[in-house]
């Protein structure tokens, strides 16, 4: 080949299939932020970004013996296809777990095992929502749910929260406004306990009000409850599902209380929806992994999981306190809630700062967080960041916050420098 | 001397096969702590895959606390290192200094040359002196805005360089921290974005034209250019997202230029490679201005080698098998005595 311009250039697109994808895949794009998170996984970086549970206290030695025994005795079942609804043994085992949050009227047949909560979100959205339908959701909203809703081209409409969670009056206002526009509202998605990312919990008083409003307008509630057992004082709140078995689909997971690597979660749904969920599960994955489900049952049957969760509560409380104390010491210019449970502090940063734009500077300083913009579908959230206290040790948390304070100070200096046209030069 | 025609014919380079590959061991260093870690990991694993395909024994290793021991321990010490770290510590010469001190042969430019190319303002100056045009620019650290007052300096910049401007970190890659400024009001935000990635900004007159990259390979002592690659995006912006996402970005190979312009840009890439003292492999980026003149933007000593990167795409369009091409580069370097680098 020579450089003869009469010879047509080869045209190479960086994706020859561009233009062939479904519309719902168009928003799936790489981003600078994703690139930066590749660095956040390095041990030099104090990552206050990820929501990984700390697994260092799991009894892996004993667990490996029990799992070995399970494989010897039931290996053929563990490695075989299973039921699309999930292993009956596990569906039975989740009942006492749900009872801790007041759900005492569920049967194993009401339960569907799914491949992690993310899969549950996918399934329920798939069977309930057409493109353009409305899902009401707390703002800020769990980023994983936003991704699912976007992929089904659902219109996510935000409902404000305050320190007591979803505000019932504003929920009803929002519903009325949407209905007035002729929108089809299909679901209300809520994380009522120790919210991700906001850290707040829906008060006991508000729960029946929210249920009443949803029932009044025939809107299904999707109750996502991965953190409900991780209240630091051991307190649990009554699940919405415990008060209404007809209008609530309940979703919970072993990811935060046992092991995210197993990818095992469960849903409890009214009979019609439950049937559709089973069919959708079968269509999507045939069946959840028997090996994962039996590993979970092996753990639940042979170990004191309640004591383990209690231990986690104490550990996460200590880490929450470490972060709260460090924020008070190093970042008094910020404001935040002090969560009663869960994994996250939702930090409001000083005016003028943009958490997303500041992230490269933070990565350079070897500390990572998630920008608040990730938790909105409308570009809001740059004035907040989510800080996770679940995985790093208290000492690392303090160091991370110290680094973050330096980043914020430096960024503020730069912002003020360029945004204040009348600023005097700094004297040396 | 140009050997562009040779590089456009894959048969010019003898294909490597598993059977005639020596037993030399290769370590590709990728990852690191820079903002471009993600791209580097992808580059490293792609190169590893193609070299394995050619029969080489190849491992990848992150740049971390275990690397030096791995590279120097007699049981794991490789015969050859291919540093594929993008960004600081990878392209600024640091890792190459370490390799030289460890007396390990490696593919790519030496530390000093890497350091020169990494610093875009310095590289622009050297390349300009070698006769290649480059957009007029100034290089300013964040501190100068602080000391003299940002408003005054921003005003002076616009009055002096005019608009539009292109603002980028003075070092770094993958278009991170880069912004086009068409209005004076956009300049402060562009500088803020830039300073999030580094302390020094290169503020360049934005040249309108065709964005072209030319990759240079040095195999068996011969400098060769791969066909010039033209980058086209719908909005004219080739940012990070456009670089790494599947999307509408198109490459035209060779670039849609006249014969003379293609020749000129190939020669300009060779001149930049030589003037900067680069070795083995480089990719130089240009804008072909409205007069058809190549305007030098920057040279990369560790060009991206991902599935969507420009060097591999140019090579494929020229008819190369990547596994053969990378294998030839490895053979070429292994055949040289690099004990003194």
Automatic annotation (TrEMBL), chain A:
Keywords attached to this entry: Aminotransferase, Pyridoxal phosphate, Transferase
SUPFAM superfamilies: PLP-dependent transferases
Superkingdom, natural source: Bacteria
GO molecular function, one term: transaminase activity
Subunit-structure text: Homodimer.
Family label: Belongs to the class-I pyridoxal-phosphate-dependent aminotransferase family.
Name this protein carries in UniProt: GntR family transcriptional regulator
Requisite cofactors: pyridoxal 5'-phosphate
Pfam families, sorted: Aminotran_1_2
Keyword Transferase: yes
Domain Aminotransferase class I/classII large stretches: 69-404
GO BP: alpha-amino acid metabolic process
TrEMBL record, chain B:
Textual note on the cofactor: Binds 2 magnesium or manganese ions per subunit.
Entry's Gene Ontology molecular function annotations: ATP binding; D-alanine-D-alanine ligase activity; metal ion binding
EC class of the enzyme, as a word: ligase
Keyword Magnesium: yes
Major subcellular site: cytoplasm
Pfam families reported in the protein's UniProt record: Dala_Dala_lig_C, Dala_Dala_lig_N
Pathway participation: Cell wall biogenesis; peptidoglycan biosynthesis
Catalytic activity: 2 D-alanine + ATP = D-alanyl-D-alanine + ADP + phosphate + H(+)
Gene Ontology biological-process annotations: cell wall organization; peptidoglycan biosynthetic process; regulation of cell shape
Top-level taxonomic group: Bacteria
A cellular-component GO term for this protein: cytoplasm
Protein name (Swiss-Prot/TrEMBL): D-alanine--D-alanine ligase
Taxonomic source organism: Bombiscardovia coagulans
Organism phylogeny: Bacteria, Bacillati, Actinomycetota, Actinomycetes, Bifidobacteriales
Gene designation per UniProt: ddl
């Amino acid at each position: 080949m020579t450089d003869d311009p009469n010879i047509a250039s080869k045209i190479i697109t960086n994706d020859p299939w561009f233009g062939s994808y479904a519309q719902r895949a168009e928003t799936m794009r790489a981003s600078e932020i994703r690139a930066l998170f590749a660095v956040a996984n390095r041990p030099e970086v104090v990552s206050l970004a990820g929501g990984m549970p700390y697994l260092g206290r799991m009894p892996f030695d004993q667990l490996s013996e029990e799992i070995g025994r399970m494989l010897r005795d039931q290996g053929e079942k563990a490695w075989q296809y299973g039921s699309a609804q999930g292993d009956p043994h596990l569906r039975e085992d989740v009942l006492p777990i749900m009872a801790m949050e007041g759900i005492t009227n569920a049967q194993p047949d009401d339960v569907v095992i799914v491949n992690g909560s993310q899969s549950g979100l996918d399934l329920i959205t798939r069977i309930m929502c057409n493109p353009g339908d409305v899902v009401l959701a707390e703002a800020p909203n769990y980023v994983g749910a936003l991704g699912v809703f976007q992929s089904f081209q659902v219109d996510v409409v935000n409902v404000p929260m305050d320190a007591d969670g979803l505000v019932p009056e504003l929920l009803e206002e929002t519903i009325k406004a949407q209905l007035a526009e002729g929108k089809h509202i299909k679901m209300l998605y809520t994380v009522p306990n120790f919210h991700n990312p906001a850290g707040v919990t829906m008060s006991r008083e508000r729960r029946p009000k929210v249920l009443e409003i949803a029932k009044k307008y025939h809107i299904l509630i999707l109750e996502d409850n991965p953190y409900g057992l991780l209240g630091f004082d051991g307190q649990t709140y009554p699940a919405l599902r415990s008060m209404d078995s007809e209008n609530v689909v309940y979703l919970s997971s072993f990811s935060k209380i046992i092991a995210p690597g197993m990818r095992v979660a469960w849903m409890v749904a009214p009979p019609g929806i439950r049937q559709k969920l089973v069919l959708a599960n079968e269509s999507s994955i045939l069946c959840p992994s028997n090996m994962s489900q039996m590993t979970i049952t092996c753990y639940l049957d042979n170990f004191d999981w309640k004591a383990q969760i209690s231990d986690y509560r104490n550990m996460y409380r200590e880490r929450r306190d470490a972060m709260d104390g460090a924020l008070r010491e190093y970042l008094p210019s910020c404001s935040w809630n002090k969560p009663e449970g869960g994994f996250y502090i939702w930090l409001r940063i000083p005016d003028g700062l943009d958490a997303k734009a500041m992230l490269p500077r933070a990565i350079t300083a070897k500390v990572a967080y998630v920008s608040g913009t990730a938790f909105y579908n409308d570009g809001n959230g740059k004035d907040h960041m989510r800080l996770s206290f679940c995985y790093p040790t208290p000492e690392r948390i303090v160091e991370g916050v110290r680094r973050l304070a330096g980043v914020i100070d430096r960024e503020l200096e730069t912002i003020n420098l360029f945004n204040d046209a009348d600023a005097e030069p700094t004297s040396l | 001397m140009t050997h562009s025609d040779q590089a456009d014919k894959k048969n010019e380079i003898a294909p490597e096969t598993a059977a005639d590959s020596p037993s030399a061991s290769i370590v590709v260093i990728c990852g690191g702590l820079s903002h471009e870690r993600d791209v580097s990991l992808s580059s490293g694993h792609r190169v590893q895959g193609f070299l394995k395909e050619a029969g080489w024994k190849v491992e990848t290793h992150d740049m971390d606390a275990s690397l030096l021991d791995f590279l120097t321990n007699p049981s794991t010490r490789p015969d050859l290192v291919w540093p594929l770290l993008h960004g600081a510590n990878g392209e600024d010469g640091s890792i190459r200094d370490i390799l030289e001190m460890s007396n390990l042969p490696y593919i790519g430019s030496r530390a000093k040359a890497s350091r020169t190319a990494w610093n875009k303002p310095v590289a622009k100056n050297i390349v300009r002196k070698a006769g290649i045009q480059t957009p007029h620019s100034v290089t300013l650290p964040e501190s100068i805005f602080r000391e003299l007052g940002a408003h005054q300096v921003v005003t002076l910049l616009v009055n002096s360089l005019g608009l539009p401007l292109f603002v980028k970190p003075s070092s770094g890659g993958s278009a991170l921290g880069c912004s086009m400024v068409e209005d004076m009001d956009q300049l402060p935000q562009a500088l803020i974005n830039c300073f999030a990635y580094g302390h020094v900004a290169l503020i360049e007159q934005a040249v309108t034209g065709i964005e072209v990259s030319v990759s240079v390979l040095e195999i068996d002592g011969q400098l060769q250019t791969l066909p010039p690659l033209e980058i086209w995006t719908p909005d004219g912006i080739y940012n990070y997202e456009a670089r790494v996402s599947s999307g509408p970005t198109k490459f035209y190979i060779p670039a849609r230029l006249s014969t003379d312009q293609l020749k000129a840009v190939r020669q300009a890439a060779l001149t930049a490679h030589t003037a900067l003292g680069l070795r083995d492999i480089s990719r130089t980026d240009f804008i072909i201005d409205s007069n058809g003149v190549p305007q030098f933007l920057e040279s990369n000593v560790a060009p991206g080698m991902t599935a969507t990167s420009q060097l591999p795409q140019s090579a494929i369009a020229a008819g190369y098998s990547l596994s053969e091409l990378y294998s030839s580069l490895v053979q070429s370097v292994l055949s040289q005595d690099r004990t003194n680098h």
